[in-house]
Design goal:
Structural class: alpha/beta
Number of strands: 17
Number of domains: 2
Family: In the C-terminal section; belongs to the HTP reductase family.
CATH architecture of the largest domain: 3-Layer(aba) Sandwich
Pathway: Cofactor biosynthesis; riboflavin biosynthesis; 5-amino-6-(D-ribitylamino)uracil from GTP: step 2/4; Cofactor biosynthesis; riboflavin biosynthesis; 5-amino-6-(D-ribitylamino)uracil from GTP: step 3/4
Low-confidence stretches: none
Radius of gyration: 22 Å
Organism: Aquirufa ecclesiirivi
Strand order of the largest sheet: 11-12-10-9-8-13-6-14-17-16
Shape: elongated
Bound molecules: ligand AOF, zinc ion
Protein name: Riboflavin biosynthesis protein RibD
Mean pLDDT: 95
Cofactor: Zn(2+)
Helix content: 25-40%
CATH topology of the largest domain: Dihydrofolate Reductase, subunit A
Length: about 350
């Protein structure tokens, strides 16, 4: 790595500290360097709060340290007034000498205008440092803005012989404490969590993030035939749930029933989530829902948690010609596999 890459790597590492806390905003980190020394650093810590550049400038021991400095920021500084004022203006006011940027901001409110502002003020701007790493870190944010849909992760748990539940649909405990924590971490890293009605009926899950610090996702339940019981935890626990039906429109506290019509398509559900501003959705089951996503091609990442056990019979996992990458051992009896999507 050259020096620019080392400072940018630091900005990317800092950005990850906002994981599970900033969506629908991107993960952003910022480092202020002078004479080959880091004088300030910061990251976007929570949705609605100060941006990375503001945190970095605030962290300087002496505010004048910004004058003539080199700023490394993992996303193009914003040029708009959103929940916070434009970062490009702050960098100009702080009289920085040059700004190194990892990725452009695809948000139409920014999209190149941050860079233009900096250049117009005589600041040198360099873009594309560790671009691929940044694109990976903010894959959800970039997918949302470029593909105009949420980023979709599919995840299921199965026995070694490929069953995800007992024959009668009753759940099987596949997780161990470590893999459960990992599931909850994944939940904090998605803005929505989606399941079919059958999962609610059989498991009555809470689908929140209890075992990892971070935001819980909005529960999205596909319930075209209005089958989920009113006393389900996702309806009763006071947290936000969207129930997607054909014809029922209703509201009960943080629970919202959406009617998408007789012609009930996954694409319409995804469009609704896009319009509501969700940048990512974790699809956690069951077999029918996961199969529908796999068949529609609507997914970006696929994970399987496999427990060292043979069930012999049960409800089969989604059958698709998936090429799994080598599994990672999680705890005593779980292996996690990610699909190789090329
Ligand atoms: C930056 N630095 O740390 C972040 C940026 O509503 P706001 O004011 O928080 O603005 C959110 C938008 O700002 C977000 O969609 C993205 O375009 C940009 N995020 N920009 O300069 C940051 N988080
Ligand atoms: Zn900003």
């Amino acid at each position: 790595m050259n020096k620019q890459e080392i400072w940018m790597q630091r900005a990317l590492d800092l950005s990850l500290l906002g994981s599970g806390l900033v969506a629908p905003n991107p993960l952003v980190g910022c480092v202020i360097v002078k004479n080959d020394q880091i004088l300030g650093e910061g990251w976007h810590q929570a949705y609605g709060q100060a941006h990375a550049e503001v945190m970095a400038i605030r962290s300087l021991a002496n505010p004048e340290d910004s004058i003539g400095s080199s700023v490394y920021v993992s996303l193009e500084p914003c040029s708009h007034t959103g929940k916070t004022p434009p970062c490009a203006d702050l960098l100009i006011k702080s009289q920085v000498k040059e700004v190194f940027i990892c990725n452009l901001d695809p948000n139409p409110l920014v999209a190149g205008q941050g860079i233009e502002k900096l250049k117009a003020a005589g600041i040198q701007v360099f873009q594309g440092i560790l671009e691929n790493k940044g694109a990976e870190i903010n894959r959800q944010f970039f997918t949302y803005h470029t593909k105009k849909r949420p980023y979709i992760t599919l995840k299921w748990a199965a026995s070694q012989d490929g069953f995800i539940a007992q024959e009668d649909g009753n759940p099987v405990r596949f997780s161990n404490p470590q893999s459960q924590a990992l599931v909850h971490q994944m939940r904090t890293q998605h803005q929505g969590i989606l399941v079919g009605a059958e999962t609610i009926i059989q498991d009555n899950p809470r689908l929140n993030a209890r075992l990892w610090p971070g935001n819980s996702p909005i529960r999205i339940v596909l319930d075209p035939h209005d089958r989920i019981p009113q006393n389900s935890q996702v309806v009763q626990d006071g947290q936000c749930t969207w129930i997607i039906t054909k014809n029922t429109k209703a509201e009960n506290g943080p629970c919202q029933w959406y009617a998408i019509g007789e012609n009930y398509l996954l694409e319409d559900i995804i469009q609704l989530a896009y319009e509501k501003g969700l940048i990512s959705i974790l699809v956690e089951g069951g077999a029918k829902t996961l199969t529908a996503f796999l068949q529609s091609g609507l997914f970006d990442e696929v994970w399987k948690q496999e427990k060292d056990m043979i069930l012999g019979k049960g409800i089969a996992e989604p059958r698709n010609s998936i090429n799994w990458k080598k599994g990672i051992q999680i705890g005593e009896d779980n292996s996690w596999y990610q699909a190789d999507l090329g």
